[in-house]
Amino acid sequence: MTETSKQNREPASKHRYMQWVVAIAVGLVLSFVVFERATDPEPTRQKAVEEAVVFEARMLLVSYVLPGRELQVVDPLAPDSKVGKSYIWPDGTGWEVSGYYRRDLKDPWHPYLMTLDASSGLVSLAVKDGNERLIGMSAQDPKFSAVP
């Protein structure tokens, strides 16, 4: 081999080593990030809090709309894209939960929006339902609103 061909190969081998070093460094950084994200307990705690809030919202909804009977509910824990979207989100010091409900298969789906305080106490409940009993209740209870 001539001297010039050896000189031309040296820079290529230096770049090959740098590629390996960069690849290993990127792999280590990515594996650290994935490990930290997988072992972070905060998302699990947040999900548990949200589930508890939705369960409380269900109980409050049933107690207002159809006490003592079964109510079909679409909410963040039981989504149904054919009916509509349902959400839970933090709102200042409490939560807002939205979804749909119906009394039986003949009843259309009725949307609702519920606002809860930090201790899952009812702040307000708004439903779109033409039921006469609910409309009468909304005139008496300032936390409850029913519109046809």
Q: Could you characterize what this model shows?
A:
It is a single chain. The chain has 148 residues and is of the alpha+beta class. It has two domains: 1-40; 42-147, no CATH class. Helices cover 47% and strands 23% of the residues. It has helices at residues 3-38, 42-65, 132-140; strands spanning 72-74, 88-91, 94-102, 110-116, 122-128, 144-147. Strands 1, 2, 3, 4, 5 and 6 form a six-stranded mixed β-sheet that branches.
Number of domains: 2
H and E string? HHEEEEEHE
- Can you count the beta strands? 6
Radius of gyration, CA atoms, in whole angstroms: 29 Å
Helical coverage, percent range: 40-55%
Average pLDDT taken over every residue: 88
Span of the ends, CA to CA: 92 Å
State the secondary-structure class.
alpha+beta
Tell the overall outline.
Answer: elongated
What is the overall number of helices? 3
Largest sheet: 6 strands, mixed
Proportion of residues in extended strands: 15-25%
Parts with pLDDT < 50 across at least 5 consecutive residues: none
Offer a quick outline of the entry.
With 148 residues, this protein is α+β, with helices and mostly antiparallel strands. It folds into two domains: 1-40; 42-147, no CATH class.
Main attributes?
six-stranded mixed beta sheet; 148 residues; alpha+beta; 6 strands
How is this fold's topology laid out?
Layout: H1 3-38, H2 42-65, E1 72-74, E2 88-91, E3 94-102, E4 110-116, E5 122-128, H3 132-140, E6 144-147
Parallel strand pairs: 5-6
Antiparallel strand pairs: 1-3, 2-3, 3-4, 4-5
